[in-house]
Design brief:
By secondary structure, the protein is of the alpha+beta class. It has a domain of 59 residues. Helix content is 31%, strand content 13%. It contains three helices and four strands. A four-stranded mixed sheet has the order 3-1-2-4, with no helix packed on it.
């Protein structure tokens, strides 16, 4: 997901498996900054709505070396089978974001 910092006109785009949850927690809890969630979980920069076009914020993210990223992604996927469950509507409702997020349009490629 993306997080908008209106006091600084900045947009943090959370790339999966790169430590973004830690960054957001630090911005909110440690630094006590005004942080607003924009879009859905793991939105890329072009899917965060009108903020990007109207405000033209400074946009930043965290990246990770591809080999270590894929290693982490693979470990996460290997854990997925033990933690996935079906919701009342019959759709996958995993305990974490990575099981099924049909509206996110995010894929590791």
């Amino acid at each position: 997901m993306a997080f908008y910092l209106p006091d600084f006109n900045a947009l943090f785009v959370h790339c999966p498996k790169t430590g973004g949850t830690f960054v957001v927690k630090t911005l909110k809890e440690t630094l006590k900054l005004n942080v607003k969630q924009v879009g859905y979980k793991h939105s890329h920069k072009d899917l965060v709505g009108p903020i990007r076009f109207r405000k033209q914020p400074y946009t930043f993210t965290i990246v990770r070396h591809p080999v270590s990223w894929y290693g982490s992604f693979w470990q996460m996927k290997m854990r997925a089978g033990n933690e996935m469950r079906l919701g009342d509507d019959g759709k996958a409702a995993g305990l974490r974001w990575y099981y099924l997020q049909p509206d996110a349009l995010w894929h590791p490629n």
